[in-house]
Amino acid sequence: YLEDGKGEYKLVGRYLDVLEDSRNALDINYVSSPSFNFNFHPNPFEIFRIYKTNSTYWFRLTLKNKSEKVDHWVLEIFDSHIDTLEIYIPFEKGKFKKFQTGDQENFNSREYKHKNFAFGIALKKEEEKTIYIKVKSSHPVAMMGVVRSPQRFVHYSTSEYFLLALFYGLLISMAAYNLFLFITVKDVAYFFYVLYSLSFGLYSISLDGTGYHFLWSNSPYINNYIRDFALLFISINGLLYTRYFLTTYKIIPSIDVVIWVVILLRFLVFIAGFTFVPELRTLPYLDIVPLFLAFLSGIFCLVKGYMPARFFILGFTLLFSGFFINTLESTNLVNSNIFTVYSINFGIVSDMFLLSFALADRIKNLVKQKEKAHAETIQHLKESEKLKEKIQSELEEIVQHRTNELKEKNKQLDLFVYKASHDIRTPLSSIIESANKSLASTTDEVARHYLEHILKSTARLDLILGDMLSLSQMKGAQLSISKIDFEEILKEILDSLQHTPNFKHMQFNIEVDNTVAFYSDKKVLYSVLQNLTENAIKYSDPGKDNPYLKITIKQTNEKALLQFEDNGLGIGKEHHSKIFDMFYKVNENSNGTGLGLYLVKMTIEKLGGTISIDGEAGKGTVFSIELKNMTESVPA
């Protein structure tokens, strides 16, 4: 009886009779005939589950309107996955108005554009109608429904859609937020969390009918496959999220192997369900296995000391609780209400929230580990710095000690070279003098030959000793700074070299810019200028008509630039990098010692300057010198 004050009547127990048509041969005329009255049996359950997919089921519902206010009621069938659903409502004696729908029909063909199957029933006061419901489906479904007043239907539908919108809004928000975190921190666990969340969202919209309502309303064939794909994605993405979140490949490698095996098996079962073994598509609780493996993995990792697994375990516990309550409701062990009907949705939201907290806790744990590692690194660096300073100090002491030893040894060596050269020159001079006298007083050609050879060798030895003495004196000399007059020094040098071979054939061009005072050691500088001038005369090219030496000097407040340019024999470019080395000679047959230019370079460096060479063999040579302008205040 439909009465005032009661806006809702559940289709349970004595209100709903059921008939199984195992031959699929009956129609409305047979089942509504008086002879078929006794073939219907009362429904013993609050929810009648249809598992025999080869049979057609007929349900009979008798309604009588006792309401003074309501003359139109709404019959709502909850299970949106029924393939074919036919409603027969009497409108004349012996005649029925047929409404056909189902998830294989176009959504827009429904009388009420609602995610569930809804039908309007007109009932005047005291009017009684017997309604027949025909159900045929290729997979297990549930016959559960309610008769509502229009006001109650609108109120309940609005509240239900609001809660579903809130559910999906939370799911999408968490997925979007964690997608942003994945893009930011590049942690693949966030990526699989997003896929896992969206997989549950896809499963939910396929389960409650909102997907068919809003997304693929014109493609009912999708209803046959979307749930299977959603469950596959839940299993695979859930296990991959578990693997990367718990890092099972590091903590428990054996569990990691099991995860990959289960992923492979679940994929093979999915393929088999659509090809060889269709029964696998309806296998109950198949996807509990991957989720339970994820739950166990969390427990094992927590036992191993991985603390972020706490929220992970709690999230899966609430998810399983939602599935458990839904199972109890499906088996009629608990009453059906909005909490039990949507217990899976509540479990999913709780699981997603807690898994999101688990990711945050994981990041927090990683930050702590990073901070700890950073602190340890800083401590190691401090210890390393102290060790470095200690080693550096010890090395500096060793280097200083060795440097002092080397200086002392060099000083002793220079002193030895100086004394040896000086002491050797005295008897050497006597030998040269005696040889000259003997050569002048003898007419024996053999004796004269040997005497000339002695004089040549002793002269060469005397030249070497002279350069070595000059080198030793230069190293030990203390600079005496005074104002330099380059023109005066060069005049003295040229006067002293007048009797040098080739001097008379040379042209000398001297240009000195002395507008700025220049200070240096006159004695040391004299030896440099003399050496370079003498070399230009000595290695002039006799085959040229106008051999010359051009000396250009420019003085500034900071330095003096000297250039000695000649057109003599020249020095090949291959010798330029070695010409200032000790004992290096361009021509091995030369009478020189190989110390001249080395001595020039050492002397210039002592004066705080540099020297470079340019030119080519046969075209002349250019020596460029840069000297620091010292002051009289510079200590000697």
Biggest β-sheet: strands ordered side by side in the sheet? 3-2-5-10-7-8
Provide the gyration radius in Å.
Answer: 55 Å
Mean pLDDT: 85
Number of helices: 15
Q: Main traits of this protein?
A:
636 residues; alpha+beta; six-stranded antiparallel sheet; five-stranded mixed sheet; 15 helices; 19 strands; 18% strand; rod-shaped
Describe this structure in words.
The chain is α+β, with helices and mostly antiparallel strands. It has 15 helices and 19 strands. Strands 3-2-5-10-7-8 form a 6-stranded antiparallel beta sheet, with no helix packed on it. A 5-stranded mixed beta sheet has the order 14-16-17-19-18, with helices on one face. Strands 1-12-6-9 form a 4-stranded antiparallel beta sheet. Strand 18 and strand 19 (620-628) form a beta hairpin. The mean pLDDT is 85.
Fold blueprint:
Elements lengths: L7 E3 L5 E6 L6 H4 L9 E2 L5 E3 L5 E9 L7 E6 L6 E9 L2 E7 L15 E6 L5 E9 L4 E3 L1 E4 L1 H36 L2 H21 L1 H5 L11 H21 L1 H4 L1 H21 L14 H16 L5 H22 L7 H4 L1 H99 L3 H32 L4 E3 L2 H11 L10 E7 L5 E3 H17 L9 E8 L3 E8 L29 H11 L3 E7 L3 E9 L8
Parallel strand pairs: 14-16
Antiparallel strand pairs: 1-12, 2-3, 2-5, 4-11, 5-10, 6-9, 6-12, 7-8, 7-10, 13-15, 16-17, 17-19, 18-19
Helix pairs in contact: 2-3, 2-11, 3-5, 3-11, 5-7, 5-8, 7-8, 8-9, 9-11, 11-12, 12-15, 13-14, 14-15
